[in-house]
Task: inverse folding
């Protein structure tokens, strides 16, 4: 390691002395650093996604992208034919002036790691006596330098019942402007008597972590931020490393989580922050969710409102600040360029938190003399963003019979919330829901209680307090959930009892179509379904007094064959239809498949119902045709999130044909559809075999469609003229159905 440091310093001195580093020198420097910084030319924007799947895209400049890569990522790029142009890393483009301790600290220089730790540890003792300021030490990294992830928690009085707010910075180690902003904000919160500061401390529970990647920031040594690198000590981009609701638990392919990310996830789950912001550098723009997903966040209108507010307040100080190419200094992350595994997506989806990414300086390591200017630009905006956590809908939920506060109550905005945007009550029954001005139907629900829905009107910058009392359900309320409700033959399902009631002592399950078909354990696992169809599940629960209640969920389990997009023809009336990547994967680049579904019953037509649909907009298309080939009438072409919805064949063969094409750019999650059969008009009229007469054969077929495979026996049933009027009427058919279903 010592030799690496010496080689790195020699090359760095060569650069500062005015020697222009050639590509060979830069290559040697980056080998020593274990991190490459470079540009790549792109022919079309869709290529960016492919590059981002290998390394970390940092910036788009015209027809080129600026990227970071560790050694293995860089080698993979080169092997695939890319020709990177190496660039001087941002932290080596100018020397960062460090505080020399000969004078008091004035926020116009960077801090050594030791001075940073000393400052963080000193905040609690230096805070005013009425401030609750505690050091939060998430842990010591296991890398060789044993650096710590430190933060502070600030509030006045008891933190219980208050919205929790989180500020963090510098998860990319070379983006250091936000680190100084966070330190200065902590100092202000500890020492200022300004009424605005006091109001924040009185009404928020505030957490601030100035540097969440110290191994990256101090990669050049504990005494300098010159030589800082983006990745952490293990060569991982922490903002591509979080679980991703659209791309899986490990979108970057890692087998475990880095400490820096795992500790932040643990913190988020422990405290369920109301709002948060994570400061980055390299641009000047507010980047709001989603990063990984094209459909907008349910609170998109609120996000655009608060982000414009932040940007406009900053531009009021400096009109040329936050004027990047994005509209008015804000951008949706996916629209800017898509990434997977970002922290803001994790916080918004899994953490019940409204988190934004704030790109606060175009230069990642600006001249230290400029640091006070960035404070001036952002100061009012930072305080205003914190104040937004106080607005919206807030309250406490209690038990209507005992006044006991209720934790874990789900607060849902009807016809609005999805993808993790609902919130739950905290340890004293409190909930906090920032939201854009409007009138909303808000539902409060918890197992064992009757749900309650209330209409609430809120304005921007207004706090509405809505306390709620939920009435407990008396006696027994049986309920259950399943790990999956739509599966393929041979798959297994786990069932979880969700019944409410005191002293429940027994559970009796019945699984129609399942193996085993019954169970008496509370939470049965491994119930296997081998045949296609739709099946009921019944649960009987009994308490210690012998009281018994039964719940049956009809057609709860669907078992269907599954087909991925491919070339060929399938005959079926019960199937799941996926893109080529299947239920768990994305489709691929350069796909071209044509697939036809034929009805598996006579006088039936195929119907496709799409429940999910997402392809690269304007590039990857699903075409649907009303017939047995692409020569048939085209129903439509679909891309982006423009779902086909429900499509029903109208041709004589009852077939639907699907054709899918993708380009060589981005890929997406594709689609999920169910394939079924419905009966054509002649069959519905009763003349199944279309011979102009409703015969006993027609009636048999109709009964089979309704009841399954049956055999008609007995003279009364074989004589379709049940009422003896000399004609087979709809009344005769109705009587036959009644008799058959009640045999």
Result:
């Amino acid at each position: 390691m010592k030799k690496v440091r010496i080689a790195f310093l020699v090359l760095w001195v060569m650069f500062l002395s005015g020697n222009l580093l050639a590509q060979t020198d830069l290559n040697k420097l980056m080998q020593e650093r274990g991190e490459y910084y470079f540009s790549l030319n792109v022919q079309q924007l869709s290529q960016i996604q492919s590059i981002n799947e290998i390394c970390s895209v940092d910036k788009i400049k015209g027809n080129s992208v600026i990227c970071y890569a560790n050694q293995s990522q860089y080698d993979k790029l080169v092997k695939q034919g890319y020709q990177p142009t190496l660039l001087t890393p941002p932290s080596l483009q100018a020397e960062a002036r460090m505080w020399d301790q000969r004078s008091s600290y004035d926020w116009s220089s960077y801090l050594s790691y030791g001075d940073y730790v000393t400052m963080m540890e000193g905040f609690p003792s230096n805070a005013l006596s009425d401030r609750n300021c505690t050091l939060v030490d998430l842990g010591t990294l296991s890398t060789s330098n044993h650096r710590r992830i430190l933060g502070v928690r600030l509030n006045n009085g008891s933190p219980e019942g208050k919205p929790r707010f989180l500020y963090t910075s510098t998860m990319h180690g070379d983006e250091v402007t936000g680190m100084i902003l966070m330190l200065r904000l902590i100092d202000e919160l500890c020492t200022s008597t300004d009424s605005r500061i006091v109001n924040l401390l009185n009404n928020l529970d505030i957490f601030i972590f100035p540097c969440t990647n110290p191994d990256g920031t101090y990669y050049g040594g504990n005494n300098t931020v010159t030589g800082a690198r983006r990745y952490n000590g293990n060569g991982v981009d922490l903002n591509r490393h979080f679980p991703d609701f659209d791309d899986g638990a490990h979108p970057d392919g890692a087998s475990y989580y880095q400490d820096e990310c795992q500790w932040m996830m643990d913190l988020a789950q422990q405290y369920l922050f109301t709002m948060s912001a994570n400061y980055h550098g390299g641009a000047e723009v507010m980047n709001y969710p989603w990063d990984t997903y094209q459909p907008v966040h349910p609170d998109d209108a609120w996000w655009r409102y608060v982000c414009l507010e932040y940007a406009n307040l900053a531009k009021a100080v400096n009109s040329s600040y936050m004027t990047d190419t994005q509209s008015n200094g804000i951008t949706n992350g996916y629209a800017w360029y898509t990434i997977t595994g970002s922290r803001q997506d994790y916080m918004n989806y899994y953490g019940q938190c409204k988190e934004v990414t704030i790109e606060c300086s175009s230069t990642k390591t600006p001249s230290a003399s400029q640091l006070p200017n960035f404070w001036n630009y952002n100061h009012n905006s930072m305080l205003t963003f914190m104040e937004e956590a106080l607005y919206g809908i807030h309250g406490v939920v209690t038990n209507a019979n005992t006044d006991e506060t209720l934790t874990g109550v789900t607060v849902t905005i009807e016809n609005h919330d999805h993808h993790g945007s609902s919130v739950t009550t905290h340890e004293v029954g409190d909930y906090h829901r920032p939201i854009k001005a409007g009138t909303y139907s808000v539902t409060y629900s918890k197992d064992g209680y009757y749900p309650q829905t209330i209409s609430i009107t809120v304005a921007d910058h207004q706090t509405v307090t809505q306390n709620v009392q939920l009435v407990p359900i008396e006696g027994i309320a049986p309920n259950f959930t399943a790990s999956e409700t739509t599966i393929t033959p041979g798959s297994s399902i786990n069932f979880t009892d969700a019944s409410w009631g005191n002293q429940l002592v027994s559970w009796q399950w019945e699984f129609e179509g399942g193996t085993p078909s019954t169970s008496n354990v509370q939470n049965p696992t491994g119930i296997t379904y081998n045949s296609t169809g739709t099946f009921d599940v019944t649960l009987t629960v009994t308490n210690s007094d012998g009281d018994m209640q039964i719940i049956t969920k009809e057609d709860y389990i669907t078992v269907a064959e599954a087909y991925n997009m491919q070339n060929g023809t399938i005959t079926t009336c019960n199937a799941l239809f996926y893109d080529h990547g299947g239920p768990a994967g994305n489709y691929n680049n350069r796909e071209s498949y044509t697939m036809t579904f034929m009805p598996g019953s006579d006088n039936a037509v195929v119907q496709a119902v799409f429940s999910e649909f997402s392809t690269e907009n304007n590039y990857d298309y699903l075409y649907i045709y009303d017939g047995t080939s692409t020569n048939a009438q085209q129903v439509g072409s679909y891309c982006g999130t423009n779902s086909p919805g429900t499509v029903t064949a109208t041709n004589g063969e009852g077939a639907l044909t699907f054709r899918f094409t993708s380009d060589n750019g981005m890929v997406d999650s594709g689609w999920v559809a169910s394939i079924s059969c419905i009966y054509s008009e002649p069959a519905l009229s009763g003349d199944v075999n279309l011979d102009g007469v409703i015969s006993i054969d027609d009636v048999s077929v109709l009964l089979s469609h309704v009841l399954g495979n049956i055999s008609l026996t007995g003279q009364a049933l074989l004589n379709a003229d049940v009422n003896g009027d000399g004609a087979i009427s709809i009344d005769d058919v109705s009587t036959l159905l009644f008799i058959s279903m009640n045999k």
